[in-house]
Amino acid sequence: DTGVSQDPRHKITKRGQNVTFRCDPISEHNRLYWYRQTLGQGPEFLTYFQNEAQLEKSRLLSDRFSAERPKGSFSTLEIQRTEQGDSAMYLCAGTRQETQYFGPGTRLLVL
Amino acid sequence: AQTVTQSQPEMSVQEAETVTLSCTYDTSESDYYLFWYKQPPSRQMILVIRQEAYKQQNATENRFSVNFQKAAKSFSLKISDSQLGDAAMYFCAYRPWNSGNTPLVFGKGTRLSVIA
């Protein structure tokens, strides 16, 4: 167990709806990453927080995506106006001693 | 841009035997980290082993060991005495050394099956 939790574990939504995912790292994780993993692929970087500051977003993160990490603790990832192409596993990871520890992920299915 | 290549989409091994998973990477950096992660079906991705590029000695964790060839940019994972619980997707990942924003770059993974 890495100590990183994510909620919900599964989400089914209709195209056009908004969804929000939550990640709770352990307290030592000052850096927090979001990745997206599609079937048959390795995770791809979405965005990154150093404490509460969002320092970088990848080109994969369109304007429909927004992430926050208030008070440098838990983080949320929101997708607005979901599209079928958003269907994927969304992973978060906390960093300790230069190693990333992953949560169980949220699997999103957009119908 | 850094890339990680895992040339074996699928591998299988008999229980108690040894298997080696391949990984190559491309980078112009001299200092970096390399990782192997294991992702069992519908379960959490967990760290298997980590290697710092400046270390000449290959990392070992119990039945898991790596063969790190820096000049060849190769980082293979050897699993000895394979167990049924080793069945999973295995991802090789790279990260530069610097302390700023350094997300992991992953390969596409190798699916390992263990045959009883």
Task: Please provide a written account of the structure.
The complex is a heterodimer of chains A (111) and B (116). With 111 residues, chain A is an all-beta fold. Chain A is built from no helices and eleven strands. Chain A has strands spanning 5-7, 10-13, 19-24, 31-37, 44-50, 53-57, 65-68, 75-79, 88-96, 99-102, 106-110. In chain A, strands 2, 4, 5, 6, 9, 10 and 11 form a seven-stranded mixed sheet that branches. In chain A, strand 9 and strand 10 form a beta hairpin. The N and C termini of chain A lie far apart (32 Å). The model of chain A has no long low-confidence stretch (mean pLDDT 92). Chain B is mainly β and 116 residues long. Chain B is built from no helices and twelve strands. Chain B has strands spanning 3-5, 10-14, 19-21, 24-26, 32-39, 46-52, 60-61, 64-69, 74-79, 88-96, 105-106, 110-115. In chain B, the strands form three sheets. In chain B, strands 2, 5, 6, 10, 11 and 12 form a six-stranded mixed sheet that branches. Chain B has a four-stranded antiparallel sheet with strand order 3-9-8-7, with no helix packed on it. In chain B, a hairpin with an 8-residue loop joins strand 10 and strand 11 (105-106). Chains A and B meet through strand 5 and strand 10 of A and strand 5, strand 6, strand 10 and strand 11 of B.
